[in-house]
Design brief:
The chain has 169 residues and is an all-alpha fold. 72% of the residues lie in helices and 0% in strands. Its main location: membrane.
């Protein structure tokens, strides 16, 4: 049994919206990836910080850049009425992503001894990839929530709208 044309169209519209969201998330994430890797390598090669500490610093800088990009580009059409809660959730889920990302690097560096410059970058990149999947899900589900459309008022048989409590017609 094939879905009705309206169901197919709705599915197509939802997939199109999801594809756009993924593209915008990817654009912001791509900039964040470049910032993350640039800061990581700069700190790693110009200071005596250990690999994972340099990575954590780079991740924090990228998180700050990403928030600006997500709020003002990728999710600019989302609810803006609860910024404090939004920022709190963003930082909470970003911290979980930071642990995931740097957990991969930590395991490679201290668990397997893979701490050369190329190896560090490969495992940093791999950790970012795994953390990105978590971040995409958590940001779209909990942080940058869609505005809920106002329900249409019920109509009375003669075409007039039925009054709703607390609402002036």
């Amino acid at each position: 049994m094939t879905p009705a044309p309206s169901q197919r169209q709705t599915l197509r519209e939802r997939l199109t919206l999801l594809a756009r969201e993924i593209a915008k998330f990817g654009a912001v994430g791509g900039v964040g990836l470049l910032v993350n890797l640039a800061v990581f390598n700069l700190v790693r090669h110009t200071t005596d910080l250990q690999v994972v500490r340099a990575s954590i610093l780079a991740t924090v800088v990228a998180i700050a850049c990403n928030y600006v990009g997500f709020r003002h580009f990728a999710y600019r059409d989302r609810d803006k009425s609860r910024r404090t809660k939004e920022l709190t959730l963003f930082l909470l889920f970003s911290a979980v992503g930071l642990v995931i990302e740097n957990g991969v690097l930590y395991t490679a560096t201290y668990g397997f001894g893979w701490d050369g410059p190329l190896q560090s970058n490969v495992f940093k990149f791999l950790g970012i990839g795994v953390a990105t999947l978590f971040r995409f899900w958590s940001y779209r589900t909990w942080v940058f929530r869609r505005l809920q459309p106002e329900p249409e008022p019920a109509s009375v048989g003669d075409g007039r709208r039925e009054p709703q409590p607390g609402r002036v017609i």
